[in-house]
Amino acid sequence: MQRVKMFTVVLFRNRFKGSFGVYPALTDWTRRRGVHTSATTLEFHEYDKRSGYDTGLEIADTRTERIRLGLKQLKKEIKLWKKEMQEVLISDPILDYRAGEVDVFWRFYEESSLDHWIVTSDSDHAEGFSKCDLKIGHQGYGLFHGNLCSRVPKDGRIQNSGYCNMMTKRVSKSFQRDSFLDWSPYTHLNLRLRGDGRSYLINIHVAGQFDIMWNDVFTFVLYTRGGPYWQTTRIPFSKFFFASKGRIQDKQAPLPLYRITNFGITVSDKADGPFQLEIDYIGAEIDPTHHEETAYEMYEIQQNYIIGT
């Protein structure tokens, strides 16, 4: 039996060799992978959900430290699981959605409300010189502020720079199980904020199960007024357009409100200088008179390529 295994291994290693014992059709990458032999897989495959960016998670170096962090995380997951079980036993879902009534999902009123958000900029990934922060302002509201810089690092690798972003953490259940926000009953996004006259991007992430969908996002522009006055912004979900990795897609589709994973706000308008955006709350509401599914043409695009393995 051992000889059969050895013969199978040798046969597998030499199945692509030529007459001189070399691999004429394979590169070093394909020899290491041993599965894909076509370079076209690099155009569709995503090896990381973060696309190579740092996840920000705490990584232990020693086994003792890993055990300590694991037990610490286990306590949090058990508490979250108990809370989920209480919600299941209570079973009190929202059954009545009244027009004009805003359901608030995120409100900035104390320091603990900032734990739901992740703030990043290009300088955090050595891709620029922008700086930003999210904190509770002097008047008790969320303050997203910083300095935007579109100067490109002279490393010969980066061509564009200048962005600051605030995004919610991935919706998840206990024990790191992925989950989604279900906004399907709503028709409009509702925000109360005070801006500085800049234009921001509102990003609703709908990361799918497959790697080609990890960067799917629906975006719309948030126009703010300068000055001391607050503004309430109502944006129909039908106005959000489909994009991926910062590129607007030709083939549009309605926003799948039943599988939202993250919500974010980005400033990247190429106007160097300080910025600040005060936020009171972020919520959604229903308008019975709004029946638009999407505001963009859903025409069919002729595909001149075939996706295969």
From TrEMBL:
SUPFAM superfamilies: Galactose-binding domain-like. It comes from Macrosiphum euphorbiae. One of its GO terms (biological process) is mitochondrial electron transport, NADH to ubiquinone. GO terms for molecular function: unfolded protein binding. It is found in: Mitochondrion. This is NADH:ubiquinone oxidoreductase intermediate-associated protein 30 domain-containing protein. The keyword Chaperone applies. Residues 106-279 form the NADH:ubiquinone oxidoreductase intermediate-associated protein domain.
